[in-house]
Structure formats: structure tokens, C-alpha cells
Design a protein that fits this description.
Blueprint lengths: L1 H37 L5 H39 L7 H39 L2 H7 L4 H40 L3 H11 L2 H27 L7 H31 L2
Helix pairs in contact: 1-5, 2-3, 2-5, 3-5, 3-6, 3-7, 3-8, 5-6, 5-7, 7-8
Length: 264
Amino acid sequence: MSQIFFFFIRNPLHFLLDFLAELGAIASFTKAGVLSAFLPPYKRSITRRQIDSIGVGSLPIVMLTGIFMGLVLAMQGIVELRNIGATSYIGRAIGTTVIRELGPVLSSMMVAARAGSAIAAELGSMAINEQIDALRAEGGDPVKKLVEPRLVACTLATPLLTMICDFVAFVGGWIIAVQIVQVSSFFYWDSVFEVLTPAFVWGGILKSLTFGFVIGVVSCYCGMNTPAGSAGVGIATTRSVVISSISILALDFLLTKIYIVTWW
């Protein structure tokens, strides 16, 4: 009985200690990446290539996410608004939902799934093949050369992808509103632009900026700390996507709470 008691006491303690140690390591890694981004020399050419890889490479999946998000929101909104005879205001419902929540969250999760996993896999392969150790042996800084460009690219590309996703979602909602509800195009877009206040727009941009930064940090950290062995890259990639997704959802709740108190 005493062994069972100590088992249940010791395991949560080990889990808590491991969690705090991992959190401290991520915080130290984040500090090094942020400081590297503000200190010369700047890896502009590498950063541009990463922005192209992350931004342009993720554009098709983000646009698909946006169009289907707009279509589904419009159809669901029509069902609810029809009960109160307000289907003509479907644009306001779509605009508010997309710009506040679904646009930043879904587009960022697509970036984490597509680009974040690729970053973790690429850095993980380099870690397993000892290319990162070779870079250190030659006197290079892995954080400056490998982490900084990917971190900056994720942070800058995610808000741009979010804005494209939002616009495509509005187009999807417009298609349903015009074809099914017979709402005039002018009335639909006018109702959408009514809710695009500076507070809503900047709130969505700041959310996606934060999400992009988190995706960059988590993906680079998981890739640089890939476990040894043939399965290490797969483990690092899975950890990157899972941790990024959970972090996005948790930060979305926290930022929404802050925005409601301050802006909304």
C-alpha cells in the first residue's frame, strides 16, 4: 500500500518538475532567438527565402481553409438568422466571427501544420545528421543562422496569411448570401465593412502576430532538440504541431479576455 501511495505522489511531482524544466528551456531558447533577431549581422537573404517558403508555400491551404470557413459560417448563420428574420445581416455575423476568432486561429493552425512541421523536420534532420554540431565546431551560431530567419519569417508571414484567409472567407460568405438568401452584394459588403472597426482589425492582426511568433519558437525548439534515433524527426514534428496548436488555442482565450476588457 505504501508503494502505491508513493507512486501516485512521486509521478505528479516528476511531471511538474519536467514541465517546469521544459518551460525554462523554451524561455531561454526564446530569449536567445529574440536577441539574435535584433543584433547584427542580419540574415536577410535567408529570411526572405523562409518568408517565401512559409508564406507562399502555405497560401493554397490557407485560402482553402478561408473559403470553406466562409461557406460553412454563411450556411450555419442563415439557419440561425432565419428564425428571427434577419438573414440579410449575415455579413455582420460572418465579419465579426472571422475577423475576431476563426480567421487568426484557423489560419495559424494551418501554418503550424504545414510550415511548423516542415521547420521541425528540417532542423531535426540537421540535428540527427550532426550538421548543427558541425556548425558550432566551425564557430558559427546555430541560433543566428538557423533559428532567427525562421522565427522572423513565421512572425511576419502569419498575419499576412491571416488577412488573406479573412478576405477569402468573406468571399465564401458572399457567394452563399447572394445565391441562397438573395442578399444584394452591396448590402452584404456594406454590413461586413461595418464590423471591420480598427479594434477588431488590429485585434486579429495582433493575435496572428503572436501565434506566428509562437509557431516559430516551438517549431525551431522542437527541431533543435530532436531526440536521437530514426524516430526522432517524427517525434519532433509531432511535438511541434501539437504544442503549437494547444498554445494557439490557449493564447486565443487569453488574448480574447484581454481584448474584451480593454478594446471590445
